[in-house]
């Protein structure tokens, strides 16, 4: 059997990870400033994480949601405390797309409405409703096309007000920071006004924090810079440091009904153990604070490089706009400097390192980046 060939691959295979580095079979070391697409939040093979996962595998890695699982409540308590959303409800699933799928469905259940408002260049996933709310026709199959999703420009309040005035929309879904679009940010004032408009029109506000959450921006969630509280928050990526898991955080005003949502694998014992270990490390090692500090340093130093067109982002979610080919630059960083980075389109290099990155590792990247640019 052959693999279904849908990925553009580098000719390199990491077989081991430790801290902020990955290694190939021949022992070659690579600095990881991509984190497997923002997934590796506490570094590779963190000892506390490894111990927690191994212990749970030896005890009970999985049983269904037909029985009690106290690890789910343990995770809910830890996540509520870490995020500041202790009064919210938690529903656990397996991927970012699945979290958004359930969030959109829940908004429709709660409001009785069918339509969703999303934003130009948004990316919310590849499942049916999530991809319909994604502004990329290349990944939206004919099956996913629907009149129930409409798009407006990000930060365009007038366009939002005009749409929501009809009171047809169950939800507005917006990313804390648009990642796939190239690190494009909703203005804090825009998010504050968006919160007001959605309340006035009975529309639920969904914050997609799948890439921008879990401390990546220097706050637990990116929307917390604007001081707002959404009705629903979706998280994934860094939640379990590589174990497939995601979550929907749901405001207390939204009441559950038995059978409304469901999942086979979501919230399994092994995933909960992994996610609890991640929160332990984030708290004990003050990784949200580290993301803010090292991220601010990286952004300020990048802005001093004259060849760059623009530097965008917060914390350790950074987009670097170059005057040239970002894929070619990333390839050279990987094979000449042994540094992994991410991309977002033809001209943007995306930095999504583990939250454990140090200033000296940031300096190593900066030096290599300048040499490649030169």
Q: Report the span from N to C terminus.
A: 45 Å
Low-pLDDT segments:
none
Strand order of the largest sheet: 4-12-11-10-7-5-6
Mean pLDDT rating = 97
The largest pleated sheet is described as: 7 strands, mixed
Q: How large a portion of the residues is in β-strands, by DSSP E?
A: 15-25%
Encode the helix/strand succession as letters: EEEHHHEHEHEHEEEHEEEHHEEHEEEH
The gross shape turns out to be globular
Question: How much helix is in the residues?
Answer: 25-40%
Summarize the structure.
The chain has helices at 35-38, 47-59, 70-83, 96-111, 128-132, 157-164, 188-201, 269-284, 287-302, 326-337, 359-373, and strands at 14-18, 21-24, 29-32, 89-93, 115-119, 149-152, 169-175, 177-178, 184-185, 204-208, 232-235, 246-250, 310-314, 317-321, 339-340, 342-343, 348-351.
Describe this protein's structure.
- This protein has 11 helices and 17 strands.
- It has a 7-stranded mixed sheet with strand order 4-12-11-10-7-5-6, sandwiched between helices. A 4-stranded mixed sheet has the order 1-2-3-15.
- The chain is globular and about 55 Å long.
- The protein has helices at residues 35-38, 47-59, 70-83, 96-111, 128-132, 157-164, 188-201, 269-284, 287-302, 326-337, 359-373, and strands spanning 14-18, 21-24, 29-32, 89-93, 115-119, 149-152, 169-175, 177-178, 184-185, 204-208, 232-235, 246-250, 310-314, 317-321, 339-340, 342-343, 348-351.
- Helix content is 36%, strand content 19%.
- 48% of the residues are buried.
- It is an alpha/beta fold.
- Helix 9 runs parallel beside helix 11.
């Amino acid at each position: 059997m052959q693999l279904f060939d849908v990925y553009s691959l580098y000719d390199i295979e990491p077989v081991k990870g430790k801290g902020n580095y990955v290694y190939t079979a021949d022992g070659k070391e690579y600095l990881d400033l991509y984190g497997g697409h923002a997934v590796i939040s506490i570094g590779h093979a963190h000892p506390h994480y490894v111990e927690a996962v191994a212990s749970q595998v030896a005890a009970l890695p999985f049983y269904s949601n037909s029985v009690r699982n106290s690890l789910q409540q343990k995770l809910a308590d830890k996540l509520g405390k870490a995020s500041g959303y202790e009064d919210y409800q938690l529903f656990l699933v397996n991927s970012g797309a699945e979290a958004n799928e359930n969030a959109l469905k829940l908004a429709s259940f709660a409001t009785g409405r069918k339509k969703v408002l999303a934003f130009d260049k948004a990316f919310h996933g590849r499942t049916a409703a999530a991809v319909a709310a994604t502004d990329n026709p290349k990944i939206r199959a004919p099956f996913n096309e629907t009149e129930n999703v409409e798009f407006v420009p990000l930060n365009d309040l007038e366009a939002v007000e005009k749409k929501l005035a009809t009171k047809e929309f169950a939800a507005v879904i917006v990313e804390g920071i648009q990642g796939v679009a190239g690190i494009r940010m909703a203005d804090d004032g825009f998010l504050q006004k968006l919160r007001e408009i959605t309340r006035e029109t009975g529309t639920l506000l969904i914050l997609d924090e799948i890439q921008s959450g879990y401390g990546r921006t220097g706050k637990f969630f990116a929307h917390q810079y604007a001081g707002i509280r959404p009705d629903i928050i979706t998280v994934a990526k860094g939640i379990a440091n590589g174990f497939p898991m995601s979550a929907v955080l749901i405001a207390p005003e939204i009441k559950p009904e038995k059978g409304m949502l469901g999942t086979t694998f979501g919230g399994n014992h092994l995933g909960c153990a992994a996610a609890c270990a991640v929160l332990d490390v984030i708290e004990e090692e003050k990784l949200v604070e580290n993301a803010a500090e090292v991220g601010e340093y990286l952004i300020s130093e990048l802005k001093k490089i004259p060849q760059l067109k623009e530097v965008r982002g917060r914390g350790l979610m950074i987009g670097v706009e170059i005057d040239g080919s970002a894929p070619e630059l990333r390839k050279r960083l990987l094979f000449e400097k042994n540094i992994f980075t991410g991309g977002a389109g033809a001209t943007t290099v995306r930095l999504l390192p583990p939250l454990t990155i140090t200033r000296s590792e940031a300096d190593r990247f900066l030096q290599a980046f300048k040499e490649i640019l030169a």
